[in-house]
Amino acid sequence: MKRFLVISDIHGDAAGAAYMEEALARHGLKEILCLGDILYHGPRNDLPAGYAPKEVIPIMNRHSEEITAVRGNCDAEVDQMVLDFPITADYSIFFLENRRVFMTHGHVSTPDHMPRLKKGDIFLSGHTHVPTAFAGGGIYMLNPGSVSLPKNGHPKTYGILDEEGFTVYTEKHEPYMSVRFE
Fold this sequence. Notes:
Layout: E1 3-7, H1 14-27, E2 31-34, H2 53-61, E3 67-69, H3 77-80, E4 91-96, E5 99-104, E6 122-124, E7 132-136, E8 139-143, E9 157-162, E10 165-170, E11 175-180
Parallel strand pairs: 1-2, 2-3, 5-6, 6-8
Antiparallel strand pairs: 1-9, 4-5, 7-8, 9-10, 10-11
Helix pairs in contact: 1-2
């Protein structure tokens, strides 16, 4: 079964990047979907407690062959110069079984401004720092939250996507919310 670690909004937090590596090992995963905002904290966010982008770079680059990434609103061309995997695409589309997965950061295409998807397809985004796992209008809306700067009282989180559904886990690797695909 194809399984992906889904991570978003690291924002230069070395501990957040370390959670990614812990999750890979703990869940025996080989592929990572990174939804952007990797190195920079952004002008509207507080500095993450473990803000150390130079430490995040080698962690991410160790997994360059496993990462499929999209550009977040805090990612820049200069970030691409130090990362060994592409980060400049606004979106990526792939199929998981018979479901189209539209993968984006969530600042251009949003749950309120989605591309054309059909019932059963998946809209996978980050940006809000708020985890979500539900079906709305027949489209699965999935967001892993943030491993560094969670919002709205949520803990630090990441997700796992497979053919059966999507589960959000806390930084302690405990299930937090999930949705099963019909």
